[in-house]
Amino acid sequence: QSALTQPPSASGSPGQSVTISCTGTISDIGVYNYVSWYQQHPGKAPKLMIYEVSKRPSGVPDRFSGSKSGNTASLIVSGLQAEDEADYYCSCTSYEGSNNVVVFGGGTKLTVL
Amino acid sequence: EVQLLESGGGLVQPGGSLRLSCAASGFTFSNYAMGWVRQAPGKGLEWVSGISGGAYSTYYAVSVKGRFTISRDNSKNTLYLQMDSLRGDDTAVYYCAKDQGGAVAGRPYWSFDLWGRGTLVTVSS
Hints:
Number of strands of chain A: 9
Order of helices and strands of chain B: EEEEEEEEEEEEE
Oligomer: heterodimer
């Protein structure tokens, strides 16, 4: 159960777009489309932003989108706003026999300049 | 109001035990798989355990398997995590989380759309 790899930091100016990557392996992201993205503000609980690679829960702005290519998933935040400054975590669910395995990335701190 | 409220955290000595509870409200609890996710101070998220809606299936991270036990009482809308043989690296905020409801061949996607505020567990002598 190795953690997914995310860049520790990312940044962009208001109105710009930023992409956060999440790299796994052929055993998780490479084969399963159960990739989720979470936003966490300091001292707060995580919030689901994207599920199943690219689907948005109700209430999440369409400025947030997700994609996947090979073993890497990406979160794209367009039209950056000050309130987007937060930590972002990816996760992927894989199934190994009768076991379910959920791994998170190490997190990316997004700074809005 | 749709919410999850954890309780039971605190200070415990290494080797000790603790039981966390998570009270759910505002949704049909038994219809959803539930999980526990923890976050060590200043660190990232780590999935700990999950349980199906009917409590028929349970899942654990390698780091806690054999030491932690997840359970639920659907008549009380409550999720539990029994933690035994606690170690210093179990120190974390423990979040209760609701699975979104999607599934493949009866297995949840483990995408969490509702989280509690968390309860802090500190393992120290």
